[in-house]
Batch of 4 targets.
Target 1
Amino acid sequence: MKRLLIIFLLLSPTLLFAQGYQLNLQSVQQTGMGGVGAAGTQDASALYYNPGSASFLKTNSISGGIYPVISKGTFTDRASGKVNNSDNPLVTPLYLHALFGDPSKRFRYGLSIYTPFGSTMKWNNDFTGHFEITKISLLSVAFQPTVSYKVTDHFGIGAGFVYGYGHLTLDKNIPLNESDGSFANAKIKTSAKSYGYNIGAYYEFSNKFSMGLTYRSALKMKADNGNATFDVPSSLAAQFPNQKITARLPLPDNWTLGLKYSPTNKLIIEADFMTANWKPYDTITIHYSTPTANLTDTKLVRLYKRAYSYRIGAQYAFNDKVVGRVGVSYNKSPIPNDLVNPDVPDADRLNPSIGIGYKVSDRFSLDAAFVYEHIKRSGENRISHINGDYKFNLYIPSIAATYKF
Amino acid sequence: MKNKNIVLNIAAVVGLGLYSCRPTTSVPTPVKGSADFSKYVAIGNSITSGFADAALYYDGQMVSYPNLLAQKFAEVGGGTFIQPLVPQNSVGVGSTGNSKLVLGIVNGSLSPVPADTKGGDLTIWTNSVATSGPFNNMGVPGAKAITTVYPGYGNPANGAGKYNPFFTRMTTAPATASILGDAAAQKPTFFSMFIGSNDVLAYALTGGTSDAISPSSGSAGIGFDASIDAIVNTMTANGAKGVIANIPDITSIPYFTTVPYNPVPLDTATATSLNTQVFGPIIQILTAAGQGSRLQLLKTTNNPLLIKDESLTNLSTAITTALVGAGVNAQQAGLLGIIFGQARHATSADLIPLPTSSIIGTAPSSPYAVSPFNKYGVTYPLEDSYVLRGKFGSQTSEVDSITTATAAYNAKLKAVAASKGLAFVDVNAFLAQVKTGIHYNGRDISATFVTGGAFSLDGIHLTPLGNAMLANKFIDAINSTYSSTLKEIDASTYIGVKFP
């Protein structure tokens, strides 16, 4: 427990950063295998991937990992051919899973801390879409105390309570010019929080074959104490008073169905199907506490659709010490074609991944994985009329340490 | 230890390598198509010159649409584009010797004010820059289609209307040269012609009191059509390709649409007393003469402006006689007869020029403007120069004359472009679109004065943003006619009006 407390202290002053909108970066082992895990994982990360499977793990463990996400992108304006660059700050989603309880008993418990959602983006100064966004950073962290119960020798269920905390900053230009010709600027900064749950059921047909089903509830992030600050010409300052804002960010619920097949004790093959209901993410309203004639509620029309992910991955043990992992996931974007926007230029993605695990001792192991994501999307937003090609490369190396006890 | 360093070095190299891995983008190289942009000359008026905020000044010239076009032409073999630039830090000069307008705060409200109250930079007119020419940008503020062909348009001896100091400064032969001659002498391979607005606008700007609309017929220098033919034939004589723009309807520009015809509020007591003592009786008399629709009783809000319509039958005598008959003393009756003889309330067909807003409600300098008839546009009619008269009854209106002339000019411009196979820019349609509102890269652009983003503080000329949007219309027209693939300008970083 003492070790855990120290890690907590290190984590607590900083927020967890992330890139992308919904992250599946909660275990380096699973990341190497395409992000699968609903039909069981190999350590305490089961608390996140399927709480129902955690009670089947033969040892307790603490596992922590970090993902330095490197991303660079471009937006090419269709009409002018101007190439805009997005140089995004290095961000590092983190996780920590700890599983406790007597492995010989039916009841286990634990805690997961992870980064469920996130996004950062910083566009160059004369960005074509600067009235939509110049900089965005959405950071979140979830705390999930969890219990897992082995109902029968083949069937387990589990449930976790999720406390989600997020922090959003959003910068954009306002189409008004200062006397020196520079553009006015608006910045919105808010924290948001929400409660939810993560439940899972797990069935082990045999030591070779198992399946799992999980449901993660929606997180209706409430931002009740945000700030909007405006840098506008002084003659218009009265129209743009700095003020409190409120907003709701409904993050989606999702279902995951997973299968695991282990034909030999050297090989594990897993596949997951995930679907996230982004439909509540339709229009995000930023409500100003002190509206003026020129400053009314900002409505961000998103109208996201249901998203799907298909994931498959395998792990092969080369010997007692070293395992290799490989996987791939295909993710269908929730963003409609006519609503692609430079704040979250998401696209359908095919993400290959590889990983390696090294067992330092019976109790201690190290893992590393690497995911490559390429985002390519073209379209005209029917509201902002920003029209062009988005391309992003994301390189996500990761490293984790796991201690079993 | 050594091994560890190697590992660290490799990690650092890999890390840096990844960090620089931006996705590759391939933007097709633009091509010139069947046009040759190596020598581009622009013919036009103030809009072409980069005039904005009621003056010709450096920052405006830098974003003139021909200068913006030339930057895009340069990507497909276009040559240098020389403009008759004014000094960089000058307040500029406008048609009345004024300085450029800036947005200032007057009595606590934002209002356009001269950058220099002492006036504009007259050295711009007197210091010739002809030696740094010839100029690719031959846009001359105030030029009409008919004056573009005038020889000696830079000669002060020719007198008002046939002489233009903005041309004097840029020609090597003010006494004899014409704009067209100086443009053609450069032997352009490509030209643009956006001329003709002033052939109607100059009339409109004076409220229809001077600067008669150029007739369509008549020889070059007198008639619009022949002048346009002269320009286009001369410019294409050596096989040059080009682009022709038509002219906007005046109802697209904020100068004529910002001030409503009915802006007058009154308190209840004033409205009641004016109705009882003045408007009620006068309306009765007018009704008896079959002209009751000229005036209406006053309310507390949105009263129309009181204007003098010179096309109306003068009913002074009838009014005076009727009032005397009703027992009003002769002096009072005579005064009302003079004031209301040709007065009527404005209707939505009338256009109120922007500068009129500053005199509404002020005291006229007329000896007849005694209380309560000392409020311009409320109890004392605005003279013809403050109003562009719309249709009222069966009279031909100033607005109608302008609309008719504009349509005729635009028919001619379109026909010339078609017959010569030149690209055609429908500026009229573009500005109508701006009036409706354009959504462009996350920004709303409209013709709303000051805040719309497209029009500068004079309400006629464009902002940098407006010029960039206009240049894109030229680019689109050129591409579709000459199979070129010029890229548009990313106008989203161009600015509108600057606020203090």
Target 2
Amino acid sequence: MNMREKLPLILGLGLPVAFIIVVIILVLFPATNSLPKINFVYTTNPSSRYELQGALVVVNGKVTVQNSPNIFSECLDYEYDKQNNVMSLDMQGKVIQKDHCDVGATEKRLTKLFSMGMNVFEHDPAKNESRELTVEEVLRLNLDDTRVSRDGFEFVYGRNNSDFYGFGNNYRQDYYLKNGRYATDMNLVLPASNQYGDGVTFIGWVR
Amino acid sequence: MQTAPQIQKQDHTGMILIAILGGILLAFGLGKLLSDLWPYFGPITRIALTVFGFLIAHTSGYFLSKLGNKAYTGTIFHLIGIFLLPLIFIVLFRETNSTISGAAQSLIMFTFGALAYIPVAFTRRSVFVLAGAWYGFFACLSLVSFIVGTNPVFDGYFDGYTWLVFALGLLFIGVHITRYVRPIPAFLINFVASLIVVVSGLMLSDAHRRDGDGFALWDIWFPVLMAALLYLGMRLRVFMQSVLMGIGLLGAVMILVGRYFDGIGLPIILSLLGVGLIIVAYFQVAKTKDKVAQADKM
């Protein structure tokens, strides 16, 4: 068998092997200029409380709570008769519309979110540790809600690492800080009820 | 005198159909029986049952093939074994409450399959050649998936390139083994590998276009790769590969044209490409005719 006849076999075996070697080199020696230094804040919620995701927003650097009707029944557009599970009607048989919703100051709203099972954490990427924050600490925070931090890192979800045959054993969501071709695994505090490690919402970078 | 072989051939086809039907009924019957009884079994019984089923299937397949029976019953039992292999590992990981990641589970399963079937594939039996190609291909993919873990640096583009590279590998191995195996596995391997190459390549081209990346090396070498594989397909007279690579080349050129010529040059480019393809086909046919003529002379 001469070289010409062997060529397909050499290519067929050599291409995958070369590719795997390149991947191993890329994994072992990631290119990076700097490590992440800026702390970030995230929230977690129990698996039964998905309405808590996105409840916190950053406005002008301060944490505020949105008037979500799923969380604050005061913010439903219509009055609701809880006993009979119907909308309340006025004397003319029309649905009673509310003109405003008043659920109090941010502190009161935050306390309600915390009572529903939300936790707020500040994560230090240098130590790779999270610290739980109280309502007062959350209110004192000064945050950047930009996607990319000042040092060029971005909060991203890890690759799907489940099996190929699709039975989804041991799938788990991981979280990373990524900058170009470098990514580092973040050890976040996850609620026990979210067995796949989901239910994490990124809020912002600490200024 | 010419009718005898024909009758034999007809009988043969009927027997294959009956054997396939029997295999399907057997699989369904056993499957139903097992799924009814499954909750009453303990973990060890469950694992033992799947392993036992796998061994029985291949042993029966082996002996039925030895009988010299041409009804393909042996092949059907081997096929049952090949499809039972993933089940063994799924049951094993479930019942032992394994905590290793899904990628590692895939790697273990497909590597075992590759180690089991690729050596047997050297017997040149079609069913093992295909099983070896299948498990080998996915063993490579799951090895890469295991190495990169959950690292998000390896994104959707990376997945596209992974499929492309391994499908290319499979294509070349398929070209190499064409001489040794029967036409059906050779055709299937070539067809599937070509399809993966074209689809993953076009998806990558489209992703590069959607992300608005500037002119990249990809824009040159993907159409070149398609053209090279088209040439290879025509050279080796592999019809499906030629057709698929032709489609791939057209798709790649159209994506490029859409990006850089904004629709104005599209008819011209398409016409030129069409003329090019016709010329290539013409020369190929002419060459074949020459060869036939030479063979006739000799």
Target 3
Amino acid sequence: MRTDAIWPVHTLVVRTLLKSDPTAEALLSDAHALGLKSVRKIERELLYFLEGKLAPAEREQLRTELLTDPIVQTGAWRDKPAKAPAGAFVIEVALRPGVTDPVAEEIVRCAQMLDIKGVQRAATGTRYIIRGALSPKQRTMLARRLLANDVIQRFTIGQIEPVFPHPAESSGQVERLPIRKLDDRSLSKLNAARLAALDPEEMRAIQAWYIEEDRDPTDVEFEMIAQTWSEHCGHKTFKADITVAGEEETIEGLLDTYIRAATDEVRAGWVRSAFVDNAGIIDFDGGNEVSFKVETHNHPSAIEPFGGANTGTGGVIRDILGVSAKPIASTDVLCFGPADANPDKLPEGVLHPRRIRSGVVAGIQDYGNKIGIPTVSGAIWYDPAYTANPLVYCGCVGIAPKGKHVRSPKPGDHIILLGGKTGRDGLRGATFSSMTMDAKTGEVSGASVQIGDPITEKGLIEVIVRARNKGLYHAVTDCGAGGLSSAVGEMGSRIGFDVELREVPLKYAGLAPWEIWLSEAQERMVLAVPTDKLVELRKICKIFDVSLTDIGRFTNDKRAIVRYNGITVLDLENHFLHEGQPVRKLKAVLPKPVETKAADAPRRPKVDNNAVLLKLLAHPNIATKAETIHVYDYEVQAGTSVKPLTGIENDGPSDAVVLVPAGAKGSKGIVLSVGFNPEIGKVDPYRMALSVIDEAVRNAVAVGANPDRISLLDNFCFGDPLRPEVLGTLVAACRGCYDAALTFKLPFISGKDSLNNEYIGSDGRKQAIPPSLLISGIGIVDDVFDIVTMDLKAEGSTVYLIGETRDEMGGSHFHLVQGGGAGEPAPDLPAFAPALYRCLHTAIRKGLVLSCHDLSEGGLAVAAAEMCIAGRLGMLLDLDDDDTTLALFGESNSRFLVEVESSNAIAFETCFTGGMGNFARRLGNTVPGRRLTISTIDETLLSISVDDMVKAWKGNVK
Amino acid sequence: MVPYTDNERRELSTMKPQALILHANGINRDIETAAALEKAGAEADTVHLNQLREGGVKWNDYQILVIPGGFSYADALGGGKLMALEMNVYFADQVREFVESGKPVLGICNGFQALVKSGILPGSVRLKPAKAAPKGKAKGKSKPKAKAKPAAAPKIKLSPPIRATLTFNESGKFECRWVHLKPVSQKCIWTQELEELVYCPVAHGEGRFVLKDSKSLNTLRAGDMVALTYVNPDGSPAGGEYPINPNGSLADIAGICNDKGNVLGLMPHPEDHIHQWQHPRFGRGEAGELGLALYENGVFYAEEM
């Protein structure tokens, strides 16, 4: 690619003076993991491209004062084409045109600050010097698979030419789509050509409306309708009429029938907002409200893991800002293919799970750490089904003073756009990522996936929190999926609006009006601001360098109007836009799960329990996630009490985290927990829903949350709902949600669905990912001084098993590592769970519990092992079960291991009233000697030293 | 106890040392830093550089200057680098006056990086001497509770100058984990006479303290400018061992002070441990080693000035 420079280009090459470069070393081991074993060494240098007329003294000043740290770096201007060093070759990588380069922007700004006026534009890149015998094909593979990501970066074997940002101007072009005269085939062609993903009935409804209006739509109108009616924004599957095979009654919307219905029936007094706002809102301490939202960003993360997870994190933070709350914590649950997947067997275009994992983790780390929100809670799950379709669930929690969130824009209010510039981000990612790019494409395509800009979003937090406190707006919402179209469209859905697109600040030239309207560019918020508050809002924005653009007014005529340069490019009736969508009609076939184990099923064979336990501890789903947790700043804001890692060495896996938000009165804490188990989903999606709700509740209860004060969030990642058997799993899971919520009398406050998560299986056919329902729990501890952690505290304590173990090992991790298990039922939810949790909670409030850990993947054996690991203490347990494999490794719900000081044993037991005493069994004691031993009266089932368990658990995974 | 009248309260509050916390785009530990200063007895104002540039804020109204943690300017071109540039370009005189007057100055994490990279602490550039620097209140009145009055700092000839920086962690990764810090410097007004270790988290990717040459280390040590080191829980040196020393810092250095002892820069976050419930083993009943002690030291010094 040729450079597009106008002025002279100065290239500075910066290399480290330090002996080692850990980033380069990590790349080397990744190259080897990719099968490129002949790579011997990788060195990394930074490239800065400065365009402009610069005097030698100015170059020297830039080099020494701005672009290098002379203690650890050395820099040299590249004035002649650089050759690769002898015995090495060079790959240079730079961003694609249109991808935001914040460092380059800072270089231009800082050069001005240093009074060097000549620097016009800047760009950055990376130079890799690689040693090792690689064929040209292998060099390209190294570049493509490891050093550059095609979606946002370009590379050259040898020296790369920079591309600089251009001044931005819209194309202003608007197309009219002659929809009225199209037949069904042409309608479907139009649908496909514009990637609208509408159903045929929906296309016909649009056509009918325009026939009545006696005109054809503009592209802006068509795109807005498609966006408003999309699965993502309209949730048409969750609102669809579903006919279930073998059932008479039609389900009139999964959301209304099961999820919202559960919330309505539970009628929890503390719920302030459920399924209405950008996030669910609950009461915290009377004076403050807490909000929580979880989103997914799966497909973007598959294509560009760093950017996908980065913007996923940024997106859900804006959801919290969209309810006027200050974000105080992030959560993330990640699903990847196996880290040891054979790179040669990956489907075409699929990134290796290791690369996806490292990119996703780095993307979350980058956004969360920089914006200053602690990343506190989550999970990582591995399954081959997630290789091509990873899952990235991002959550955010916020806090706001009671009643401060306003949500009614008034006619006459200014439509204020805050934050970043608008580009083609997120528009039709699929088409743009497959286009060949050259220097010109910056103008026509931009980049479909963007890297987020957490610093800009931090500015939005500063501004919105202050604007909220001063009552400067009537409504606020974030620009997420669907961009301005969705944000302004939703805000104005009851009154109407009139927008001028010419004012919207652009990243680069060439955007058409529909692209400006639909762009999903990050870090933008929309506010409805009364005229008399505008000056003050501008003042606040100026302090924090937040861009403010007045793009129009809310009106009272119930119409959506969009202009470009004064000319109307969109004129729609609110009623048609928001109510005109035909209800989807779908068919479902329910899965046939096993409910009880066959009476004549053979007895489980005896296994080497020590070996199985070590295998389970080393399984990547169970093994420590410390390496990931430590790259997230889980301490910023200073509110993290129970941390993701706990115990005597700060390395045990907490059941849930507890936050004490700054500014809240007293010592109340927020509990965040996770329930997730697609392994059970494969066996029985209904029971998976029961199980993960129980898991989220019991994890929260384990650290001290009040079991009657927990709210739930549901995030469904399923396959294509147009396939009846896939939709059947979704129906089953929703029914499980309803039943479990009613059992616990706990409400759902927010949820989201991501459907069409599919991949091409080894048989070449499309397959759905396993039903993947994430339940996030948010609870309250009334006093943070009552919290309990899962690490064993002392020798000589009494250990109890709370709950009941049933013969339901379907979907267990025992079978995952040992094989077998077909025809076994998945864990059910026992009816006694809520009563049992209240008893345990009473004991915790009375201070009778030293440690408490929930039983989940790997059952009793793994839970006991983790408690021993976290406390570096031993345990001696006695079982009287016939089926010892079931007792050790079964995963029945609603169970805990609890450590109680022996002198408190009686007091502890008396907490278990109303027949619950049967479910609190003394199993043994904690012992000196750092060894876990579990026996029956006849034999020792299992005996492993804590050191060996630590080794297995910390062994090989991140 | 009889509650204070409003007048009395106003009176009391004006006696509190006023702390100026610098805010900039990307600074994100300002709120907890303010909380720590206030808990330690100061009154804290967080002011954005843009507000300072507009004037209206009087530097002389403040007795303490703090640059908190975060990612100012996204850490573009190196952590703290552009914050340092902003300070040197727009506020060099005010900052110099603050420093030379002996008032307590604290840079935490990103703030430490900025202090080093601006040359306020020994770093990659040397702060140009003021043409007519106002005479500071100087040596500072010693704390009354001090058993021994710290000797007036001997003027060390910085020859060769100490050239230091903070760069990427040796692990190549961002590190969020709890560390034990040993207060070393008795010259540094923030660390002097702290007898207990400080236990608090680090959260950074660029915290590795590096010196240009080995002589600089001797100069730092001889000048009692090594303020805090990473140590084992029993107080013994980390000896470079990861993760006790979380970033590969030379000589386990977690923080340094200037020659005068009034400016401290450190990577860890003592402001994240001012309550008992923040202790990672609070659930085990462990307590103490609060980071608050360090803030109390600085605020107390400012009160006495």
Target 4
Amino acid sequence: MQHSPARKRVTPFWRDERFLQALGQAIFLLAILSFGMLIINNMRTGLQKQGMTLGFSFLSGIAGFDIAELPIVYSRTSSYLQAYTVGLLNTLLVSGIGIIFSTILGVILGVARLSKNFLVNRLAALYLELMRNMSLLVFLIFWYQGLFLKLPRIKDAIVWFDSIYWTNRGIGVPWGIPTASYPTFQLILLSGIFLALIIYFSLQAYANRTGRAPLSLLWSTLAFVIVAALGWLIMPVKPLEISIPFAKGLNLSGGKIFTPEFMALTSGLVLYTAAFIGEVVRSGILAVSHGQVEAARALGLNGFQTLRLVVFPQALRVIVPPLTSQYLNLTKNSSLAVAIGYPDMFYVSSTIINQSGRAVEMIAMVMLTYLTFSLVTSLFMNWYNAKIKLVER
Amino acid sequence: MQNPETILPPITERSGILRWLRHNLFNTWSDAILTVVSASLIYWLVKSLLTWAITVAEWDVVVANLRLFMIGQFPLEQVGRLWVALAFLVFLTGNSLAIWDRKSYLAAILILGLPVFLIFLPFAPQTRIWLGVLAAAGILGWGLGYSAPQSIKRSVAIGWLIALPIFVLLTRGFTPAVEDVPSTALTIVPTNLWGGLLLTFLLTVVANIFSFPLGLLLALGRRSELPIIRWFSIGYIELVRGVPLITILFMAQLMLPLFVPGGIDIDRVLRAMVGMTLFSAAYLAENVRGGLQAIPKGQFEAAHALGLSGAKTMYFIILPQALRLIIPILVGQFISMFKDTALVAIVGLFDLLGIARTVLSQPEFIGLHREVYAFVSLFYWTLSYAMSYISQRLETSLGLGVR
């Protein structure tokens, strides 16, 4: 408000913009707070009528239900908190595996979608269209009920190479069982990783100094493999005993049995998310200007080298932010496990709600845990994004 | 002397199909391997799918329960008004196709021909009559749109805006049901009888309509200079976007009844609608914010220079441009909400997926999971795909999202 000094008037406070803003915010805050108070009050009285109070002390109570998949020790007599932890770990397991495999499949799909080969291109396009317009929950249930539960029974199991069993009770694969010398072998593996890291970083330093490009990843992996193999050979007792699954009555025994729920959830999430990641990868690659590809080909790089050394590093900058949100989506979508009975965090929590009636507390816990996942993932991805950002002059 | 006949003609590159094959399928040896692998994959997939669908699958379960899948337990004597509402939508679809996408006869024939095609399937006579009405409505709409001047665009757009509330109202009805009095054509149908595709559609529509003003306010709040409002908006948006939809639906089912004072009963469908709306609003707010950020600063400054207040700048200058920019994204969100409504089956509603579960629990259809879920997936897929296809066509012809 600019007036000539001679006619300057004092603005009355009720027309002062700063005052009005402060007043508006105060009213807003008051409205929100009173609304919050109102619903909390309603909730209190409602709960009191049911004879309940809010609080988290029930978590130490005995859970009294079984969980099918246990990453840690748990039994019927464990506490609710332990049950919740089991669910949390299962969620992390499914999300971790899902993220790894959907990234691999997604990159393949994204590249295939851009392939010059007509059939490959069309096949990838068909897959992307098919998955992106599918309702994930319906797909997961179809995948579980229509595929994994319709596998043959144990006695007519499909067996590959006498060692991989496909049955409706789970999929059995050969697995290593740790023996007495396993802890020592773990130490050897650890030192192998250490050696690989040293080699990787010194080769990188060499590359930065001289401008040559040694295959640092290849050499360091090779070093690790050699250490691991030597360790395996010099051990008097083999650190892992290979156990092959076999049918025993109505169940599979030995090896590692992946339940149909786990398989359906993980593979379903991977197949679904990979389509979205494929689209992200495709748009990232398309964002790299075509001149870069032509220049790389002119320098004599072949197709794969062009992709690995020129296109991908530049595409990554475009890919990372949407990729992060796909990872988060996958983690959140893993809560659909409840529809097919895989005991993830949400499924376990809903069982706890049924057992204890503590809906408010459990929903708050689940929401907070998912929020923490989101926060941690976005922090990590922001750090990574800053690291690969284009350094501008 | 050379005989002209011995001179060979110049080597021409093989044209046609062989050349296309060589360029697109067998360019290098690795390409050839990929081609062979993909071709055998396609062959195997198509063969096993067709074998299953034709010889193994028992599609009776779908045919016998088609009405359940479409409208759930909706009373049969009230079905007429659903058909009327649907006819209005089909009319608008035909009209919009003719106005905005005049050239694509194929799309028009495919979409408007669908009810005509369905008439020839062995449905009940009454259904066939209604399908005829649908076909007539669609063709009438198309014809009107084709012959009408372009100036009716605005009225058609308004027609779309009111079509969806009309649909909801017609589904619900007006006059309360009274015992001993025969129900009229517009008796209220309680929400626990809504089901199948009808419920899925209504949940999507209601969640999207109501989340729009909420999302708009949140987006404006997030860009506001007032710290309390900004932090509230950021907190709400990030909280909702950080948790899965199923937790919000669960919260709506279990906690909403606790939040309201005792005695007021919120029915389960309404609870799900509230949950979906609150969820959708946060995502919508982020989309709107994207649109707002795309408006150059000069627009704000010019509006300010003209003496418009902050609210007027938003209403007359910024929002019309920003919303126009994000229409494609909003359609995308509508489609993804449509796919997400399947989650209400987990909290016990009988939408398309929930109905599928009840159908499978009937003793005579036990074990037919593949057929039922394949049908449901196909339905979701076809509708999502059709919506995204139509919206893409409309976007290109409107030049939306392009500045």
